[in-house]
Prior knowledge:
Blueprint: H1 2-8, H2 15-27, H3 32-49, H4 59-64, H5 92-100
Amino acid sequence: EFETLWKIYPRKKDKTKALSSYIKARKAGTTFETVQQGINKYNDEIKRCKIEDQFIKTGGVWFKNECWNDSYDQQPSTSAKKKLSCEPSFDIEKIKHDVIYNDDYDV
């Protein structure tokens, strides 16, 4: 069962920790399907946001933190004013400028 999940998880590191966390979660009532759906949503988010490999959570971390419970944006908002975006909600250029010139800034 765990091997099926491990095959689809994107960053295969710390397998022993991941397995231990998975067993603990299953004993607590988490279903295989819930975890599988969480991995699929995380994989979609990684592709959609073009997350670089070094920023993808290791398997050990993802399973330990029960990240299948995280909210991953899967569908665009129904509001025409909101866009589905992976971009930060702050002005990075302003922050760079303020840091260089020692100005105060609000994030």
